[in-house]
Amino acid sequence: MYCVVMGDIFNSRQIENNYIKEINNEIENTLNYINSIFKGSILADFGLVRGDAFEGVLLTQFQLPNILNEIIKGFYRQKNTIVRLSIVIGELTIVSTDRNKANGPAFHIASDKLLEMKSKKNEHWFQVSIDTNSFAQPLIDSMLNMLSVITESWTDRQREMVWAMSELSEQQSLVSKRFNISTSAVNKHLKAAKYNVYYEAWKNIETFLNNLEELSISDSRHNEHVFLAYYGVAQRKNNMHDYKEAYKLLIKALEEANKELEKDDPQFIIIYNSLAETLIEIGKYDEAYKYITESLERQEELPKSTINYARTLNILGNLLLEKEDILNAEINFRKALDIALNLVGKSHFLTSACYNNLAIALRHKEEYKEAINYYFMDLEFSRMHVNRYPINLADVLYNIAFCYSEMHKITKALKYANEALIIYQDNLPPKHEYISSTVDLIEHLKQIEHLKQMEKKKNDN
Fold this sequence. Notes:
single chain, five-stranded mixed beta sheet, 5 strands, 8% strand
């Protein structure tokens, strides 16, 4: 079963004209972020289909709760924009990586559900329908109704604290730091919001969706598109860093896809790319190269100016870096960057990833000055999105600090390392490896600075 996600904005015609462009920009930023972060789960990228509506198609639903919450948060934080979401797990008659071409019963049901939600004229910011096409549908409906009732009584403060919990690794100490209040005050707000019930309800929905794919595998004789179930469980294993098990499941997904799909089906490209990425994590580079080559061959007759092709080039570049073929890695990263700039421009997560990848390749070549230039291009994008994705910004700042350190520009290195550390400490658990590695870098830089001062003082005497 495929997973169709369809949504529209509540009362979009009543939004002031001054805000429409601003809101649409934020919608595109949110959807682009989802397309980037959850790319392994997506068949057809999320995007606007009309002025106030959007669609996307998932290959696996295990990330569905996270995707829905990102959409709700991203929209509502922009002028309190309310979005209605209709999700259907079902069949497609036309399967395509282009959301404008994909079609079938799942789309029709999602559209009907959305019309039904519109007719109720509900003004609450939580409006979600999930049709699982299963015997447990009444339980899913009950869970969503409970979530709606719980969230309807939230204050603005409670809502932001609950959302902050998911963004800050469920660490109340970090939430207290963000809101500048005590942890006991945070606990009081979360208790009033019935946070534990809210959290458990989402987790139960997530568990059920995961089990649907597991059941499809165990009952494969009575199910079509078993490759989707294997692929979905594999993505979940990848997310858990269980790469060896993910690899086995992806091989099964490929075997089933060969039985179920036409030879030129674009879904093979997604499976090959995922296999290559998983094998890179395992360290089986030659086998990864075989699959990424197959992916590129499948795309030979397709347009090259596509996001999927740029993603494939980035995977190849990462593989070549691991094989220490730095020159060819750089070539592929530059090709991917050219596509990204021409296709989606500078202010896009794909372009940001290309800047970062190219900078890494240049660091391997010890061309730190040019690497910094690309990191600064990425920095501009990361500062624009710091409120939503602070860790991205901290990563770029750390990498700039590292390059300046290698160039022996200690003052500049310290400046960016200290800024990175503050962001990491505000958004990550205290013992996180990013914090410790940044602290180590700062201590190293301070030692060098101290030795230079001692040497200067010695020479002055």
